[in-house]
């Protein structure tokens, strides 16, 4: 514990840790850039597909099969394969992160819509709502707690796994870990690990706020 505390104080009390390309602000900015980009792309793909599948009830088995198969993909192996075939760049870094994030968003969105009591959409249709209105005004608000859980899970997985970007010479807090291991500088390794954990906690805090904003009191325990 004393050694760990020494590494932490040595890293965070060092003025050089807060400036320059390898400084904490820049590395955290890079890390969250990868995370946010990957999450946006994953939501853009998985959220509407999960809504449509859950609303129509079509393709549920295929969706679950593909999503579970995607979970089995080795993220680091996919990254290396993409870099070898596509060359260095941001796209090979983002693709495995997006693939990692799609399954929880897709499955939770589908399950959130399908778990709704069928009396609710039937009543909405009886009031003259169109299919789209039923989905947006009746089903989506009730399914939102489970959907947000899927998005939160995806975001935490991305922010934790984005450290692999450093393995192919990109930035983020993973750069500190990789460089520290290469130099046997455990101050950098510990500092990078703590920053990665802190980034995950920030993501959880953001989704806690979103839960309070987007979900009514009566549905928060759902």
What is this entry, summarized?
77% of the residues lie in helices and 0% in strands. It is an all-alpha fold and 222 residues long. The model has no long low-confidence stretch (mean pLDDT 84).
Describe the SSE topology:
Blueprint: H1 2-12, H2 24-56, H3 60-71, H4 75-86, H5 90-114, H6 119-126, H7 131-161, H8 174-183, H9 186-214
Helix pairs in contact: 1-9, 2-5, 2-7, 3-5, 4-5, 5-7, 6-7, 7-9, 8-9
Write a structural description.
- Helix content is 77%, strand content 0%.
- The model has no long low-confidence stretch (mean pLDDT 84).
- Helix 4 (75-86) packs across helix 5.
- It has a single domain, classed as Orthogonal Bundle (MetI-like fold).
- It has helices spanning 2-12, 24-56, 60-71, 75-86, 90-114, 119-126, 131-161, 174-183, 186-214.
- The two termini are 40 Å apart.
- It is mostly helical.
Write the CATH fold name. Answer: MetI-like fold
Helical element count? 9
Superfamily at the CATH H level? MetI-like
CATH class reads: Mainly Alpha
Q: Percent of residues in beta strands?
A: under 5%
- How much helical structure, as a percent, in the residues? over 70%
Mind telling me which CATH architecture this is? Orthogonal Bundle
Please, how many domains?
A: 1
For the residues shown, what is the average pLDDT? 84
Distance between the termini: 40 Å
The shape, in one word, is elongated
Low-confidence stretches: none
Order of helices and strands: HHHHHHHHH
Report the radius of gyration as a whole number of Å.
21 Å
**Main β-sheet description:** none
- The number of strands is 0
**Helix/strand class:** mainly alpha
Family: Belongs to the binding-protein-dependent transport system permease family.
Organism: Hoyosella rhizosphaerae
Keywords: Membrane, Transmembrane, Transmembrane helix, Transport
Membrane topology: Multi-pass membrane protein
């Amino acid at each position: 514990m004393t050694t760990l505390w020494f590494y932490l104080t040595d890293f965070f009390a060092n003025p050089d840790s807060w400036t320059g390309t390898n400084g904490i602000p820049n590395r955290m900015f890079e890390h969250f850039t990868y995370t946010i980009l990957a999450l946006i792309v994953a939501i853009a793909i998985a959220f509407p597909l999960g809504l449509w599948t859950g609303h129509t009830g079509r393709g549920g088995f295929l969706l679950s099969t593909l999503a579970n198969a995607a979970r089995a993909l080795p993220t680091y192996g996919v990254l290396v394969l993409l870099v070898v075939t596509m060359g260095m760049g941001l796209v090979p870094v983002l693709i495995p992160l997006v693939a990692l994030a799609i399954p929880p968003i897709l499955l939770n969105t589908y399950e959130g819509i399908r778990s709704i009591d069928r009396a609710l959409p039937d009543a909405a249709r009886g009031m003259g709502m169109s299919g789209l209105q039923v989905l947006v005004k009746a089903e989506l608000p009730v399914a939102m707690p489970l959907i947000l859980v899927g998005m939160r899970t995806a975001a935490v997985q991305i922010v934790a796994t984005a450290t692999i970007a450093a393995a192919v010479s990109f930035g983020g807090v993973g750069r500190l870990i990789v460089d520290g291991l290469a130099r046997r500088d455990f101050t950098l390794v510990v500092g990078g690990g703590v920053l990665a954990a802190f980034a995950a906690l920030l993501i959880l805090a953001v989704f806690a706020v979103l839960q309070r904003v987007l979900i009514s009191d009566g549905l928060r325990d759902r």
